[in-house]
Amino acid sequence: MATIAANIQQVEDRIRAACKQAGRDVQSVTLLTVSKTFPAEAVREAVHAGQHRFGENYVQEAIEKMQALADLRPQLQWHLIGPLQSNKTRVVAEHFDWVHSVDRLKIAERLSAQRPPGLPPLQVCLQVNISGEASKSGLLPDEVAPVARAVAALPQLRLRGLMAIPEPAEDLERQRQPHRALRCLLEQLQADGLALDTLSMGMTADLEAAVLEGATMVRVGTAIFGTRPRPAG
Ligand SMILES: *Cc1c(COP(=O)(O)O)cnc(C)c1O
């Protein structure tokens, strides 16, 4: 049975190979270890294997893991990557380091107002519905620029870039298209004067496509922890 440490090694090898193919420095891609549905002890094992950044989808589950791992807190970064309802913004502003899934100005305003002044600014990405799927959350590409300008001006947030979860596709070329579209959107915002440095894209199935198109943060769960149990309820 593969261990978490061995799986992390394999994911890092995949990232390294994709960077080589793309002519990119391997340091330009950060691995975000997605630990949703896996217990705190699995996260601890990943920390021992050198990981420090963890992505979670469910706020309550994440808070429980943070508490179970409080002894490691100073070396850990917690990233919320799942949908965020406005009634959860306060607990998120108080406990997380990053939020990748900001998809409305109102959510960003609440996070900024509720971020405790003693903490560094909350690092945020805007989630973009890059494949334009009716059922998906995220801003439509046309909506991104005005929201990005408004979010960038909020005092307790630091807008870092864009995040997307493209529609699954089998072949590499089809996988690359939405990632390329997200990169172009980021480049437009940069050209408009926003200082952004993060493209959060690429998961277990499509991290190569994402790295080839410029991902700076890949969010990988299954390849590290294994297949997720179906969440109850
Ligand atoms: C679950 C999840 C991931 C990780 O997906 P894997 O396919 O398990 O690597 C990445 N990003 C988001 C937003 C997720 O919800």
Descriptive notes:
By secondary structure, this protein is of the alpha/beta class. The protein has a single domain (4-224), classed as Alanine racemase (TIM Barrel). It is 40% helix and 16% strand. The chain has an 8-stranded parallel β-sheet with strand order 7-6-5-4-3-2-1-8. Strand 6 (157-163), helix 7 and strand 7 (198-200) form a beta-alpha-beta unit. Helix 4 (89-95) crosses helix 5 (105-114). The chain is globular and about 45 Å long. The mean pLDDT is 96. The protein binds pyridoxal-5'-phosphate.
What topology emerges from the helices and strands here?
Blueprint: H1 4-22, E1 30-34, H2 40-48, E2 53-56, H3 59-68, E3 77-80, H4 89-95, E4 98-102, H5 105-114, E5 122-127, H6 144-152, E6 157-163, H7 172-191, E7 198-200, H8 207-212, E8 217-220, H9 222-225
Bound molecules: pyridoxal-5'-phosphate.
Pyridoxal-5'-phosphate is lined by residues 34, 36, 57, 81-82, 165, 203-205, 219-222.
